[in-house]
Amino acid sequence: MTSEERHLRHHWEPTLDAVQLVSNRREFADRNSRDVQNQTPNESRPPMGDNVGSSTGTTSLHLPASMKLTGEDNWPLFKEAIENLLDVNGLGKFISVRTKPPKQVDDEDESDSAEYTKWKEWKANDSKAKLILLYNIDKSLVGLILGKKTAKEMMDSLNQRYEGSGWVTKYHALVEFYTIKYDDFDSLAEFIVAYKNAIEKMEALKIHPQQPLHYTMLFIAALSDKFGMWAERQRSLARTATRPASLDDLIANISDEARHSKDDPSGALSPPPSVDVEPRPNIESPTANNERPNSEHIEPPLDFEPPLDFDREPPLDEQPRGEQPLDEQPPGLERHVQEKRAKRAYCVSCQENKEDWKPYGYEKRLQRSQISWALGTGATSAAQAPTNKRKDTRGYRVRGSRTQWYCPTSLSYYTIKESSPIAACVMLLLPEKDVSQLLHCLTSTQCQELLNALTSALGAFSGEKTTSCQPVIHQPIRSHIVTKAGNASLFMPVSDTSTTAIKVVTISGNGGDLNGIINIFSPEGRLMGLLGAVEATAFRTALATMSLFTRCTSLRRTRVVIFGSGNQAEWHARLALLLVPEEVKTITFINRGRQRLEKLSRRLLPQLQQRYPNVYINILPKEGTEDFDGRLRSELSASDVIFCCTPSTEPLFPHFYLQSTDNGAFKPRFISMIGSYKPHMQEIDSITLLSGGGRIYVDSKEACLEESGELIKANVRAEQLVEIGELFVPQQKLEEVTVPRGCNVVFKCVGMGIMDLVIGRKLLDIASESGFGNQIDGF
Ligand SMILES: NC(=O)c1ccc[n+]([C@@H]2O[C@H](COP(=O)([O-])OP(=O)(O)OC[C@H]3O[C@@H](n4cnc5c(N)ncnc54)[C@H](OP(=O)(O)O)[C@@H]3O)[C@@H](O)[C@H]2O)c1
Q1: Which residue ranges run through the membrane (predicted)?
Q2: Whether the CB of 565 sits within 6 Å of ligand 1
Q3: Which helix (H) or strand (E) holds 482?
Q4: C-beta of 720 in contact with ligand 1 (< 6 A)
Q5: Could you tell me the domains of the chain?
Q6: Which residues face 618 on adjacent strands?
Q7: pLDDT tens across 270-320, in order?
Q8: Does ligand 1 have an atom closer than 6 angstroms to the CB of 675?
């Protein structure tokens, strides 16, 4: 402790002498600040401000000159910085509205010594906080805080001067909170920062909504225009949850959702603010000593200065040889040339390709002040952000901001404002694992887009049967080869005239793996992409079921039973939850064998349970379950939805199992079968098949009449069938499927090539946008 501090600790009176002291001290600090700026790059710097030494020798009492209070213009920055500085010194509570000072005891003899010590300690620390405030405001403003007895009074005085007080302030805080909307911000991260700030502001003004739920419900409402499905899901969960989600839960959830969608690239890639803070490594300016940091994941210092030509387009001779000239790059790309995919970039400073660059901030947790920095564009530090672009003390609303990038070789940070489009001549390879990964992180919005693409294609397929126009959809009969080794390959060609595809699936002769590829060609025959067919097929089949299921809005869809334990069963569960999240409450997987079902359960249940904590998921294996039939019957009689996903050769349950075990009353259900595809296969009995009031929905009348064992056994005729595409014929689209009284909705699907084509094509698009797969040039 310095002698000045010791003096202040015991005899603090804000006199002009003290101002002089502060002024002297400021000169010292400024000198010190200059010294700090002249430090060699390897010398370590304090996290914020000039280190003038303190009782511990490690804390700092001064802010950098650029952050000291000079007036209204830099008040928000000062406020943020001074709060941090006081926090760092352990003095934050002395300006907090929540802290109550201890009882004032002026003379040790008049009170017990414990109280006196407490008061003395408080007073000393409060004096230190006052000193810090005095150090860090311009001399011309000192009059605003002179004569104030405590640091809190000083801060209140400044608050009143620059932010106002009373009802008007409260009114503005309330309006700000209740009208906050995602659309007013450039990214999700910015919105979240602003939302949290609005809450903090209200709390500081002692405005408390009647129910804490306001915070979460308004958060959902503010995002509902942009993330409609997500908002619906959250509202529905809130209605039923025993413990409502907290604001932090919602922030984590929406950040996750946005990360996997293209809706909000910059915000999605930024971490949710105000989370755990990683220690900020010390890095020096790009020119420092030519030393490179050890890690790519280094955060810039607050006062990081980019090279002088930061905003300048590189001259032609700086452009990389063999790369596209910059004027062919998307607008807003600065110095770094982005190649075809978001994940790859070229740094013109070091002339290297950066294969695995990540947008700055991705998967990282930043301090709030650093988020301000990361959100800036032209501004290279929080201090430089223009006043009119500041939202408030904690974030900057800088329009056009996208993602900061860091090149570890040239030690530079740059902003890439737009993603470059996929070059038209690139072919995309999407192996099975990438298809699987992509499908597993689909958002409900993307899933809805895929569903729309599928229903449009089904509508076109059924629609053209009733017109005399030349067809645009061609699905020639599939052919197959069985080799001497017993490997059977199926070839399924299809064209919708604008794209052609062929799926090739091989079942190995030794009863082993199933392998498949979907090839997608341009109309001229150029190969646009190849993708693994196994998971994509399961997905598109379940999506076909969903095209009808989502429209059966008059049916209860709470209790779902799924027969099977393979990919198809899994995707029926995933899509039902993704597309009808607010209704599904229980899912029971029922399977013949135990082993595969338990394997599925171990893998799938934790994922689904985490994502849908209010949905109860369980399994029922036939193998090894006592009184399986009794339990099967009770599951089925309670069910609202039955998805059959097995190649069973006999009905999975008798029709009477659907009757209520209580009163025998009829309950309308959704029943689908996608598993059986040969005349000897049958997943449900004929009574159940015909329980739809003379109506069986199918994907293709011709294919189902030829391949479906259930239809063949029940001698079903074409007039009894309704193609789901008929529901989606343009101009006649039905939003809701009507269910005749006393009837079920029964759907049979054997699959069509057109489904592979539209879903395969759309998945390639999504993969390109999201950086999945491998691109091959000039194929
Ligand atoms: N409609 C379409 O467009 C379409 C497209 C692709 C596939 N599929 C068909 O959908 C079905 C499921 O596909 P997947 O990929 O999920 O298959 P998978 O992984 O092989 O799973 C098949 C499931 O069916 C069960 N199963 C097999 N034979 C059975 C029988 N005789 N009785 C009762 N259960 C039986 C299996 O149970 P265990 O564990 O006891 O063996 C397993 O749970 C297959 O039949 C497949 O051909 C349809």
Answers
A1: none
A2: yes
A3: strand 479-482
A4: no
A5: 3-164 (no CATH), 167-269 (no CATH), 426-536+762-777 (3.30.1780.10), 537-758 (3.40.50.720)
A6: 588
A7: 333 332 223 222 322 332 333 322 222 223 332 222 222 222 333 333 333
A8: yes
